[in-house]
User: Which sequence fits this backbone?
């Protein structure tokens, strides 16, 4: 059993960024009297009550069974309730393992509790099954995350058919009492529209789901639906106002101590509030998305904090998401309102340049000089103008591999790795 609270205190207090914080060990650690965390993808947080366990999050389809095993080595009490902090696959996909555990032990089936919008999310996942499998292979395919295999082996569908639907849903608040222990569920939008954070007054603890992920907030994911950075920050402020002594996120390390938790909440809320204010301010001034993307940055010292590093999502994507939330999809460039097809633009540019090979050569030179953003545009035109050209796709493949290496966020790495992979069959003939 790891001392996760000492680990997180040390990391936060020293600013250490070398010690891993998002650990998928499948191990359970006790973090309070009758409170435990199983570190997984996502974690499950378990709370002992006189009527059995209350569990926050079921982990993923691929980790649910291991999480249940870890939990059972700690407690043989039935699971009375399982709260989904939100409907993402890595928080709900392990639910069949909890149902099977109850059946195997002769316990009653756990009561699954979630926000009202979770069933709508499940319906959307069924409607967009193919799309979600594609994007998750891309998102998690960039860093060799094979053990996560979202949308992979076990699940025929992105959301497995046996995922437990919520038995109880709520709109804004839900007051639970399980075996004498009060638990207050609160809805808030942030990473998703269906998020729940839970206050456990007897422990002065908050199970916050993905409102803290020990990475820069996932408020900009380029391949997924709208996120809500301003409301995310507002929820962090609400949680901070309760002065919790123990914070239990679904990814990363639990945190103890009122001041330490307040500092983390404030840092995360402040960077989101800053980004929203600056982007919306520029939108009000009539500035285009292009100018905003290239002028609004988060200070390096913010991104250097161990719980705000841009290793999963990143601020540039959050900026785009803020534009989409308050504006529309059009970026302000009239040529891109009703543009010519990419292939037509690529062929025209290639003709002007003197051929696709010239563009590819220029892409390499530009990359050598450090201009990876521009180099990728040049090589895209080259590849689109000569879709079957092995030499050009060899340049494209190398360039995107280089781009992937240069990026920090899993989301950027994943998309650039997928681009490199797309050229591989042409290179290999
Ligand atoms: Zn998550």
Assistant:
């Amino acid at each position: 059993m790891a001392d996760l609270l000492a680990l997180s205190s040390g990391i936060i207090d020293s600013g250490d960024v070398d010690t891993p914080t998002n650990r998928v060990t499948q191990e359970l650690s006790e973090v309070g009297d009758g409170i435990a965390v199983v570190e997984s993808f996502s974690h499950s947080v378990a709370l002992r009550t006189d009527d059995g366990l209350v569990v926050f999050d079921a982990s993923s389809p691929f980790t649910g069974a291991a999480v249940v095993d870890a939990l059972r080595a700690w407690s043989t009490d039935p699971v009375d309730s399982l709260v989904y902090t939100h409907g993402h696959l890595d928080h709900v996909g392990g639910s069949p393992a909890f149902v099977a555990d109850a059946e195997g032990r002769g316990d009653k089936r756990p009561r699954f509790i979630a926000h009202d919008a979770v069933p709508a999310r499940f319906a959307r996942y069924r409607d967009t099954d193919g799309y979600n499998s594609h994007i998750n292979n891309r998102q998690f395919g960039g860093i060799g995350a094979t053990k996560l295999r979202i949308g992979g082996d076990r699940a025929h569908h992105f959301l497995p058919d046996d995922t437990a639907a919520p038995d109880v849903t709520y709109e804004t608040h839900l007051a639970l009492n399980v075996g004498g222990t009060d638990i207050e569920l609160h809805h808030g939008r942030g990473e998703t529209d269906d998020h729940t954070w839970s206050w456990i007054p007897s422990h002065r603890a908050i199970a916050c789901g993905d409102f803290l992920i020990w990475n820069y907030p996932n408020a900009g994911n380029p391949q997924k639906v709208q996120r809500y950075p301003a409301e995310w920050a507002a929820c962090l402020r609400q949680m901070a106002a309760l002065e919790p002594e123990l914070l239990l996120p679904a990814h990363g390390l639990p945190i103890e101590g009122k001041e330490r938790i307040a500092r983390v909440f404030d840092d995360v809320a402040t960077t989101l509030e800053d980004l929203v204010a600056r982007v919306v301010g520029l939108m009000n001034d009539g500035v285009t998305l292009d100018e905003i993307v290239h002028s609004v940055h988060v200070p390096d010292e913010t991104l250097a904090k161990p719980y705000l590093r841009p290793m999963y999502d990143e601020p540039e994507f959050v900026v785009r998401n803020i534009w989409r939330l308050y504006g529309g999809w059009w970026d302000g460039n009239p040529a891109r309102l009703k543009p010519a097809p990419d292939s037509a633009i690529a062929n025209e540019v290639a003709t002007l340049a003197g051929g696709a090979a010239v563009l590819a050569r220029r892409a390499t030179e530009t990359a050598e000089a450090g201009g990876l953003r521009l180099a990728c545009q040049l090589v895209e035109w080259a590849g689109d103008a000569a879709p079957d050209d092995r030499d050009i796709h060899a340049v494209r493949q190398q360039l995107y591999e280089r781009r992937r290496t240069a990026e920090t966020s899993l989301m950027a790495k994943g998309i650039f790795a997928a681009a490199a992979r797309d050229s591989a069959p042409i290179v290999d003939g």
Q: What stands out?
A: Confidence is low (pLDDT under 50) at residues 143-155. The chain has three domains: 4-268, 275-326, 340-428.
